[in-house]
Specification:
Order of helices and strands of chain A: HHHHHHEEEEEEEEHHHHHH
Helix content of chain A: 40-55%
Shape of chain A: globular
Order of helices and strands of chain B: HHHHEEEEEEEEHEEHHHH
Strand content of chain A: 5-15%
Number of domains of chain B: 3
CATH topology of the largest domain in chain B: Butyryl-CoA Dehydrogenase, subunit A, domain 3
Largest sheet of chain A: 4 strands, mixed
Distance between the termini of chain A: 33 Å
CATH class of the largest domain in chain A: Mainly Alpha
Number of helices of chain A: 12
Radius of gyration of chain B: 21 Å
Number of helices of chain B: 9
CATH architecture of the largest domain in chain A: Up-down Bundle
Oligomer: heterodimer
Number of strands of chain A: 8
Largest sheet of chain B: 4 strands, mixed
Structural class of chain A: alpha+beta
Distance between the termini of chain B: 33 Å
């Protein structure tokens, strides 16, 4: 049950060949060298995928999607990550695309979906607010009807990629209801509209790809609402159901773990020899590898069957903590070479510290950035509450 | 050695440093030493630890461990010790070694009346600000020696400056046939290994104390934040799951404080006992740095990820201290006698 079928193996080979032959080599080279990608790099990568019909992952075929089974999707993700290809920026392709396809108007489907596939538009996600993080349903961002328009007011925060995005989809309160999950609508706005201000947020790893976005009396037509008024919570949950394993990233975890052994072979160990022969490092490495094997098996189990809320929540915790453990092992391996804080936006960034293994600064910044994994997308604490609600039922 | 401070004197020193750093969050080393009049305190581990803890608590950039360690080495070598207001730093780490001084490959060879230095030093803290560099290099057959370099002497020295994760100025140094006068050698030729080992333990004791200040502050900031951050209609500090995580942080903080004392008080023991105590301390300190740092970020949620809050700056300094002179595995191996 955990093994791939012959058809799936054939698909895997097809995907592997694609990344080796038909995918922009400069994107892969930059990723391998630890250089940050530009928007143009992502456009090049998306265009290559779209040319093959493989960008609309998780979209139905009739709107240009792949129509893959969950396992095919998993195989694709894994091969993409093994190849050091650019991760698909999820906001448009993975988060809002499937919602537009399922609940959007015909006009939205014909205007917005092709623009996403052709890399003509990038999207940002407006979910969290300064006072609504883990408790997302208490959001206050408001959309008030005015004739054929909505007037948007409020603040969204932790928005990734706002500096590249043309559009933002927002959870907005359109009415006050007894249950705070009700009365929320999904409304889209071009980011260039008057009244929208984007404030970049610098993070502890030195990146500034997140933003806080303020809306001050921003006017959008009601045709920018996706689906029915007040139904956004329902749509978001439908999305969660289909996408709740998209953060698994088993491929990149395997790849990063394997890369640590390659790095270890180049780093001096205590006494003589290199770190790949250091038992303490190898035991720590093997411990994570064993954990990852179990997580991968859990994901495959889940993909072949039904996924309960509790399972998905448990896998989110397991996957994100495993990713953090790998970055923790990486900075341990790096030792003092973790110390330089270098700007990785230029090709020769590593020359700034000629006596340091370039792996160190990359490991350090990854360690810091990946601390967010157990915070975003429902923090570990929120996931545990979800799991407990399922377990509590067993006590009754 | 100066006489140990009385309890009252310790509190006075702590308060003086705390008050100074409360008024100046970007202090210059010269002013810090000069205005507080604490130059002599640098040669005393107990006083140094009190100062270091306050530096950690305030999370300011001051080269206390570097200057104190260099001063101790110079003093022990009967070399002139520069005024404490000057910055001096020891260049020991290299790309070809992990933490063992035995792996040092930088070489100094005699050349007429002086020396020629050849080799690479990695991530030398405060190198760009230093008035004097102490460089550990191999001489003669196989021994390690120490050289003092006036940092204005840049001929044959390639210096690549950058900031480290904790915001300190640092550099990689490449010596290419760098000429030094005869008297650049300090201490006994080929006799520096034991001195370096002791210097490392002294630096670690100060860093342990700094970590205590950092970790205590991280816990205090986290308690304060969770007390005012409201979700689900209440301060999140009201959730027992979060309370217990902060209690875990507290346990690590307490053990870290005890560990720092352990290290400071062991410095005048015989080498084996000193090494065992300092390494035991640092294993606990490193664990505390990792756990308290991770929990502080997690409990701050997204805000903990931002450069804007102090949290991340404290965490990154703690991450630097974890590996400044050695890491946990190195200390474990030293304790185990491996």
């Amino acid at each position: 049950m955990l093994k791939l079928t012959p058809e799936e193996v054939a698909f895997q080979e097809e995907v592997r060949a694609f990344f080796a032959r038909d995918y922009p080599a400069h994107v892969i080279a930059k990723n391998k060298a630890g250089q940050r990608l530009t928007k143009q790099d992502h456009i090049d990568a998306q265009r290559a995928l779209n040319a093959r019909g493989w960008l609309g992952v998780g979209w139905p075929r009739d709107v240009g999607g792949t129509g893959w089974t969950p396992i095919e999707r998993y195989i694709f993700d894994e091969e993409l990550e093994f190849a050091h290809a650019a991760g698909i920026i999820p906001m448009a392709v993975i988060y809002i695309g499937p919602i537009i396809a399922a609940f959007g108007s015909e006009q939205q489907k014909t205007e917005w979906l092709p623009a996403i596939l052709e890399s003509r538009s990038f999207w940002a996600q407006g979910y969290s607010e300064p006072e609504a993080g883990s408790d997302l349903a208490s959001l206050r961002f408001s959309a008030v009807r005015d004739g054929d328009d909505y007037i948007l007011n409020g603040t969204k925060i932790w928005t990734s990629g706002a500096h590249w995005a043309d559009w933002i989809f927002c959870l907005a309160r359109t009415s006050r209801e007894e249950r705070k999950q009700q009365g929320i609508s999904l409304i889209c706005a071009p980011l260039g509209l008057p009244g929208i201000r984007v404030h970049p947020i610098r993070l502890i790893d030195g990146s500034d790809e997140l933003a806080r976005i303020e809306f001050d009396n921003v006017r959008v037509p009601i045709t920018n609402r996706i689906g029915d008024e007040g139904q956004a919570w329902h749509y978001a949950n439908v999305l969660l159901k289909t996408e709740r394993l998209s953060y698994a990233h088993i491929g990149s975890k395997k790849r990063d773990l394997a890369a640590l052994l390659d790095q270890a072979a180049k780093l001096p160990a205590r006494g003589s020899g290199t770190m790949d022969r250091d038992p303490a490092f190898r035991f720590a490495h093997a411990r994570i590898e064993a954990r990852l094997a179990a997580i991968e098996a859990s994901i495959l189990r889940a993909l072949r069957g039904e996924i309960s809320m509790a399972t998905a929540a448990a896998l989110k915790i397991a996957c994100t903590e495993c990713a953090q453990a790998i970055t923790g092992l990486a900075i341990d391996l790096a030792g003092r070479s973790r110390l330089p804080m270098l700007d990785r936006s230029v090709a020769d960034w590593a020359d700034a510290a000629p006596a340091v293994a370039p792996f160190g600064p990359v490991a350090l910044q990854s360690y810091l950035f990946e601390r967010a994994q157990t915070i975003y997308g429902g923090s570990t604490e929120v996931q545990k509450n979800i799991i407990w609600r399922a377990l509590a039922g067993m006590a009754r | 050695m100066t006489a140990p401070l009385s309890d009252a004197e310790q509190v006075m020193l702590r308060d003086a440093v705390r008050t100074y750093l409360a008024k100046d969050d970007a202090p210059r080393w010269f002013d810090f030493i000069d205005r507080l009049g604490i130059g002599r305190a640098l040669l005393d581990a107990q006083q140094g630890a009190i100062i270091a803890e306050e530096i950690g608590r305030a999370r300011v950039h001051l080269p206390l461990a570097e200057v104190a360690t260099a001063a101790w080495l110079l003093d022990r070598c009967n070399a002139p010790v520069p005024p404490a207001t000057a910055i001096a730093t020891l260049a020991w780490a290299e790309p070809g070694l992990r933490y063992d001084f035995a792996g040092i490959e930088t070489r100094a060879r005699r050349n007429g009346d002086g020396w020629r230095l050849e080799g690479t030093k990695a991530v030398v803290d405060w190198a760009t600000e230093a008035d004097a560099l102490l460089v550990a290099a191999r001489t003669g057959g196989d021994g390690l020696s120490l050289f003092r370099i006036d940092s204005a002497r840049t001929d044959g020295l390639r210096l690549s400056p950058y900031r480290t994760i904790d915001g300190h100025p640092a550099a990689d140094l490449i010596f290419e046939d760098h000429a030094l006068p005869d008297d650049a050698l300090i201490g006994p030729e080929c006799g520096a290994l034991d001195l370096l080992e002791e210097a490392r333990d002294r630096a670690l004791a100060l860093l342990a104390a700094e970590a205590v200040g950092l970790l205590d502050s991280l816990l205090e900031q986290t308690i304060a934040y969770t007390g005012q951050r409201r979700q689900f209609g209440q301060p999140i500090a009201g959730f027992q799951a979060l309370q217990h995580r902060m209690v875990d942080m507290y346990l690590e903080c307490e053990l870290a404080r005890s560990s720092a004392w352990l290290a400071v008080e062991a410095l005048d023991e015989r080498p084996a006992a000193r090494a065992r105590a300092v390494s035991s301390a640092m294993v606990n300190i490193a664990r505390a740095c990792r756990l308290v740092g991770q929990e502080a970020i997690q409990l701050h949620g997204g805000m903990g990820m931002t450069d804007e809050l102090p949290i991340g700056h404290y965490v990154k300094r703690a991450m630097a201290i974890e590996v400044s002179w050695a890491d946990s595995d190195w200390h474990l191996a030293r304790i185990a006698g491996l």
